[in-house]
Amino acid sequence: MSLEAEEMSVVDHLTELRRRIIYVLVVFVAGLVAGLFVAKPIYLYLIHADMAQGFVLHAFSFWDGIGMYVKIAMAVSLAVSVPFIVYQLWAFISPGLRPVERSAALRYVPYVFVLFILGIAFAYYIVFPMALSFTITITRSMGLEETYGIAQYFSFMFSLVIPLALLFELPLVVMFLTKLRILNPLRLRKMRRYAYFALVFIAVVITPPDFISDFLVTIPLLILYEFSVFLSSFVYRKQLAMDRELEARYVRKEETR
């Protein structure tokens, strides 16, 4: 291939990438606009949930109310955009994949949304109430008067819920990389200590600065990793069985010659 052809190829790839990014931005903005229309009922549901009862939430700035609507709208837009982002990523890299790899990747796209919603549900209904209960218990045991701002309450919530929802995609990513034969359960078990360290580091970074939040996020992440290893083993065993079948078919074909 000539240098000019290579340069044209790079330019074509960059043009395609820019086009995909524009698509993603358009969908994200559209989701943001739609999220603003549903922000109020979602907000009312969140502040009337059992875990929010007993709090008198205050606005400490003129922008707190608007900021909450925007944050909720962004969360809605993210939930809508994540599967579309994954699809655009697949569409960008699919020309370089084999047919079986393209089929495998496309098959996983719908589950991105499912896992994201499961992550949100797990984080909001399990992790967030436990973290909130712990912090309130410590505050009251110190004899401090509780005055919570609406911005602080929702920031605490989103700092737990959104990152954990995104990290729920880990099993899907591992299955896909196993399908592409980039990862396998043997390699995942061998790198377990390093993976655990990385997951603990991620949990500390994404959570509020208290031990219980770190602990409540770290444990699900470690369980997700082990579940990912299990799924990788399932895919890997099927690959080995397929390889043996192909090898046996090739041997029989050679013997009949």
Automatic annotation (TrEMBL):
<feature type="transmembrane region" description="Helical">
    <location>
        <begin position="21"/>
        <end position="46"/>
    </location>
</feature>
<keyword id="KW-0472">Membrane</keyword>
<feature type="transmembrane region" description="Helical">
    <location>
        <begin position="194"/>
        <end position="212"/>
    </location>
</feature>
<dbReference type="GO" id="GO:0033281">
    <property type="term" value="C:TAT protein transport complex"/>
</dbReference>
<keyword id="KW-1133">Transmembrane helix</keyword>
<dbReference type="GO" id="GO:0043953">
    <property type="term" value="P:protein transport by the Tat complex"/>
</dbReference>
<feature type="transmembrane region" description="Helical">
    <location>
        <begin position="150"/>
        <end position="174"/>
    </location>
</feature>
<feature type="transmembrane region" description="Helical">
    <location>
        <begin position="111"/>
        <end position="138"/>
    </location>
</feature>
<keyword id="KW-0813">Transport</keyword>
<dbReference type="InterPro" id="IPR019820">
    <property type="entry name" value="Sec-indep_translocase_CS"/>
</dbReference>
<feature type="transmembrane region" description="Helical">
    <location>
        <begin position="218"/>
        <end position="236"/>
    </location>
</feature>
<comment type="function">
    <text>Part of the twin-arginine translocation (Tat) system that transports large folded proteins containing a characteristic twin-arginine motif in their signal peptide across membranes.</text>
</comment>
<comment type="similarity">
    <text>Belongs to the TatC family.</text>
</comment>
<dbReference type="GO" id="GO:0065002">
    <property type="term" value="P:intracellular protein transmembrane transport"/>
</dbReference>
<keyword id="KW-1003">Cell membrane</keyword>
<keyword id="KW-0811">Translocation</keyword>
<protein>
    <recommendedName>
        <fullName>Sec-independent protein translocase protein TatC</fullName>
    </recommendedName>
</protein>
<keyword id="KW-0812">Transmembrane</keyword>
<dbReference type="Pfam" id="PF00902">
    <property type="entry name" value="TatC"/>
</dbReference>
<comment type="subunit">
    <text>Forms a complex with TatA.</text>
</comment>
<feature type="transmembrane region" description="Helical">
    <location>
        <begin position="66"/>
        <end position="90"/>
    </location>
</feature>
<dbReference type="InterPro" id="IPR002033">
    <property type="entry name" value="TatC"/>
</dbReference>
<dbReference type="GO" id="GO:0009977">
    <property type="term" value="F:proton motive force dependent protein transmembrane transporter activity"/>
</dbReference>
<keyword id="KW-0653">Protein transport</keyword>
